[in-house]
Design goal:
Largest sheet: none
Radius of gyration: 11 Å
């Protein structure tokens, strides 16, 4: 997730989106297993939204904070 934020802020679309997609998969898997604390769970809606924006081809400037 941090690498995605760095990629977003640096304007590197591929890095940002691949990192956000990877984080979303990992966070979802951990959440399903009951291993995420509430603070970390709070990032899931933003990660999912951002991954959707990546898949839709939205500009990095359209990405909002994850939390």
């Amino acid at each position: 997730m941090i690498l995605g934020i760095i990629g977003r802020d640096a304007g590197i679309y591929e890095l940002a989106c691949k990192s956000f997609e990877s984080a979303e998969v990992r966070f979802t898997k951990a959440d399903t297993a009951g291993r995420l604390i509430a603070y970390t769970q709070g990032f899931l809606p933003g990660l999912r939204r951002t991954v959707g924006q990546c898949r839709a081809g939205c500009s990095l400037k359209e990405f909002k904070p994850l939390r």
